[in-house]
Amino acid sequence: MAKVYETVIGLEVHVELSTKTKIFCGCSTAFGGKPNTQVCPVCSGMPGTLPVLNEAVLDGAISLGLATHSEIAEEVLFDRKNYFYPDNPQNYQISQLYHPICRNGYVEIAPEGQEGAADSKQVRIHDIHMEEDAGKLFHEEDGLTSLVDYNRSGVPLLEIVSEPDLAGAEEVKAYLEALRTIIRYLGISDCKLQEGSMRADVNLSIRPVGQSKLGTRTEMKNLNSFRAITHAIEAETLRQKEILESGGEVIMETRRWDEEKGTSFSMRSKEDTKDYRYFPEPDLPPIKVSKERIDRLEQELPEMRPEKIERFVKEYGLPMKDVLNLTKEREFAQLFEDAARLCKNPKKVSNWLLTDTLRLMRERGVDADELRFSPAHLADLVKLTTEGKINSTVASAVFEKLFEEDVDPVAYVKDRGLETVTDDKKLRESVLRILSENPGAATDYKAGKQKAIGFLVGQTMKAEGGKADPNLVRKLLAECLKENA
Ligand code: ADP
Ligand code: MG
Ligand code: ZN
């Protein structure tokens, strides 16, 4: 009988920190500069130079450690990982093998839409360590020439190594999203898979259900979207199963995923730690991590998502589903709170954010950290609607302007005369005119066709340039129709 297998996955995630300068020199980390314009003797590996640790990198690493319930090392020590490749001008990478800054943490994951639920699972973090990024190679099409850009050389990275606790693509996605949420809440990286500021290597093995010993794993690289990660996991699980079922053995190797072809290729046999001849970095003196420093960073931790979810439900009385969507991004949650406080109408603010805002963000490819409108203006718009000064059609149009240019809604409505027409007398005239122009609809209504009034409301609204209060129009219409019944 065929065996039933289970998939076992551990992730190595690299995150580029958004510090102003590199990890061991003062060069800018800005993305997209002309090749080799953000380099100096340190990050281009000139002999005789000495690295100096950027303290903001250490703070970022400790903050992430605290947010993932990790133990923080008492001393910062680095190691040299030696390898020869043109993207690496020093011929070694400064990293942390023996004494990573954080150990033994965990991240809680839950299925999509059930964040904060009781049945969440803990994914253990083996360690988090600091290291420097390498340069970027460009291989010319002639097959003979390669160019190198060292702007990325020395950009700070945190590597987050999980234990093999993940059972498949869905859990991997939940884990990466949970990790990204934590890191974005901390504000230490923007974690964009597509842009490479978050990169995940998938270590995967399979074993017969019931067996406790882990199978031989492969490591998959070049995964730059959630879709690629899912495909790669499915394909690799199947590949290993076919090997085992045909009596073969999985080889421990590094494989490269090709999303276009939907398959992976062997890159190299898996290197061993000893292949890298790791040794303690002699150019960076050990730094003590003081208790004061950890305490300060702990104090400075922002409110994280699980606590925010709990508080929003309690404080604003909103449904869990809405709160989950409001708190995905810290900026978004902040916008909600600021606007809700100003207009004292959390429900209305939440509606604007979860419907019109999310729709416009989707349509125009805008991220939460790129939103331009101020909470005060959103609050003003909510007030205009609750005070009945504008109707919902006008409000949607004003909101779009707010989204695009952060217009002041009060001034905008006033300048363009968009206030709702509430003058009963003027509206009544309008209504009577519409009734005389549409005798058919009036007769239909009187004959019991309730729906005909909708048409008459529409006609009156049109005559008023969309600015009348539709409820008032409906009321007046009903009155007039009764009067001449
Ligand atoms: P290396 O030092 O060779 O990189 P590690 O022990 O550091 O190996 O593990 C690297 C990653 O691989 C970790 O995320 C770990 O959870 C995962 N891993 C290790 N063994 C297995 C296995 N048998 N199956 C799946 N994942 C594994
Ligand atoms: Mg490793
Ligand atoms: Zn430099």
Task: Tell me about this structure.
40% of the residues lie in helices and 19% in strands. It is α+β, with helices and mostly antiparallel strands. It is elongated, with a radius of gyration of 30 Å. It has a 9-stranded mixed sheet with strand order 2-6-7-10-1-11-12-13-14. A 3-stranded antiparallel sheet has the order 5-4-15, with no helix packed on it. A two-stranded antiparallel ribbon has the order 3-16. It has 3 domains: 5-293, no CATH class; 303-415, no CATH class; 424-483, Arc Repressor Mutant, subunit A. Zinc ion is lined by residues 22, 25, 27, 39-40, 42-43, 154.
Question: How would you briefly describe this protein structure?
Answer:
Helix content is 40%, strand content 19%. The chain has 485 residues and is α+β, with helices and mostly antiparallel strands.
List keywords for this structure.
15 helices; nine-stranded mixed beta sheet; 40% helix; alpha+beta; 3 domains; three-stranded antiparallel beta sheet; elongated; single chain; Arc Repressor Mutant, subunit A; binds zinc ion; 485 residues; binds adenosine-5'-diphosphate; binds magnesium ion
